[in-house]
Design brief:
Elements: H1 22-34, H2 45-98, H3 102-125
Length: about 150
């Protein structure tokens, strides 16, 4: 199935003490998607850098489970694809063996073997998951009237 790129979104909420709350993050993300946002201030300079570094560290820790889940899903997908292709090559091999003159069968079997070897080489070259974290939005949530 060629090259496939899976992307997953991981909302993350980290309180002032550095604790991560994933359910809260999901709730905030849903609110951001469904309601208008009011920006009252922004972080700049060293404060912004520290906030980004803190968020990055939290993502590295909390994202491990998501990464492992994606690795498992990719392994399952590859296994299913390999089983499907092995079945298809076996079916084609059986069909070739039933029809035609011996010389023609041998020619077709060699072609099939070459095609199967090329497919195996392609599968072997496919890379695994390469995690890439791209922050979409970093924000500081305050209560009404706070800053």
């Amino acid at each position: 199935s060629g090259s496939s790129q899976q992307q997953r979104l991981m909302p993350l909420f980290q309180n002032e003490a550095g604790r991560v709350f994933l359910p809260t993050a999901q709730r905030i993300w849903e609110q951001l998607l469904s309601a208008p946002i009011v920006v009252t201030d922004s972080l700049t300079g060293e404060t912004a850098v520290k906030a980004a570094q803190s968020a990055w560290e939290a993502v590295e820790q909390s994202g491990q489970m998501l990464y492992e889940e994606m690795v498992r899903a990719q392994k399952r997908q590859r296994q299913q694809e390999q089983e499907k292709m092995a079945y298809a090559f076996a079916a084609r091999r059986r069909a070739i063996n039933r029809i035609g003159l011996p010389a023609v069968r041998q020619y077709r079997l060699r072609q099939l073997a070459q095609e199967e070897a090329e497919w195996q080489a392609k599968i072997a070259q496919q890379t695994g998951i390469i995690p890439e974290v791209t922050p979409i939005l970093l924000l500081h949530v305050t209560g009404r009237g706070e800053m």
